Structures are given as structure tokens and as C-alpha cells.
What does this fold into?
Amino acid sequence: MADEQTVPGSGPEGDHQGAPTDQSAGTGDEHQGEAESKPEGDQAEDVNAEHAARVAAEKRAESAEAEAARLRRANAAQKGTDLDALRDEIRQEFTAQLVRAELRAAAAGKLRDPADALALLDVAALAGDGGDIDTAAVAAAVDQLVKDKPYLAAETTGAAAWGDVGAGPRSSATPEPATPLDRLRRAFGPN
It folds into this structure.
């Protein structure tokens, strides 16, 4: 079986090793001579086949252009609804931001941390129709939150919570006693 191996250059394939064949890419002169040597019937068949291929390609191109135009029209029609949906989404987000700002403003003096109002109240329920904000509903919601959870309420200032404890500078109508003995007389004396 080793005898049957072919060596390059031996046999009928090897005789034309350097010469161009019909399958190799040449200058085109080889194929031109073939067309001249074909009988008239074969050339007509080639021309008819090329014409049929060209007509089929033109039909495919026309149908592809028609499909592209149809898709453009459908896409343009769909973009209109997408823009409306996008506008609605932006409007809702903007309204929610306004409601959150209104909540923070209403809760500023009533809650220790105004962010608690944002966490505990339903922002979407406080937004009115068409993007309007009902400030009375926002204030009522914050008041209700303070009633329901009084531990969230803001502490009152020191003076109101403690009253006057006698600390700090005072203005008095009577002058200070000059000596410590005068102080004792004022404190324990007859008044």
C-alpha cells in the first residue's frame, strides 16, 4: 500500500504544475476564449440565466425596500405612543418629587426627622390628578402621622418644655447690695 502514495510532480496532475489551469485566477483571457468556443445555444442559455438572476435580484431589492418603508412607517407610528408614555412617566416622576419636597416642608417643624414622613407616608396617594399637589392633604397626613406615632414628633424648645428655672442673666429693678452683709439682710430681713 505504501507503493500507491503519490509524490508531487508524478502522474498526470504533476505535468501541469506551473501552468495555469481553468480553475485558477488568471487575467480573464482564458475565460474569454471559452465563451468564443461555446456553441450559440450555450451562450444564449448563459445570457438568459444571467437575465433571470438579475430580474430576481431586482425583485428582492424592491421587496426589501418596500419592507423597510413599511417598517419605518410602523416604527414612526409606534414612536408617537412611546413618546406619550415617556411624557407620562416623566410627569409622574416630577410630581412625585414635588410631593416629596412638600412633605419635607410640612414635616420640618413637626417631626424630628422630616425623612420619616417620606418613609412612612404614601407619596403616590398625596399626588393629585394632573400633577397637582393638595397641600392640605399633605399637612393632614403629617398631622395624622404625629398623632399615630408621637415618638416621631419634634421636641419643643427648652424654654417651653422646662419653663423658667432661674438660670442665666437677669435684669432687676433693685441694685445689687454692695456688701455681703447687705445681701444677707435683704435675703433674711423683713420685707
